[in-house]
Amino acid sequence: MIGYVTLGTNDLTRAAKFYDAIAAEMGVGRMMEFETFIAWGKWDGGAGIAATMPFDGEKATVGNGTMVALEAKDRDQVKRLYDIALANGGSDEGEPGPRGEPDENGMLFYAAYFRDPDGNKLNAYLMDKVE
Question: Per the database record, which ranges form the VOC domain (predicted)?
Answer without folding.
Answer: 1-127
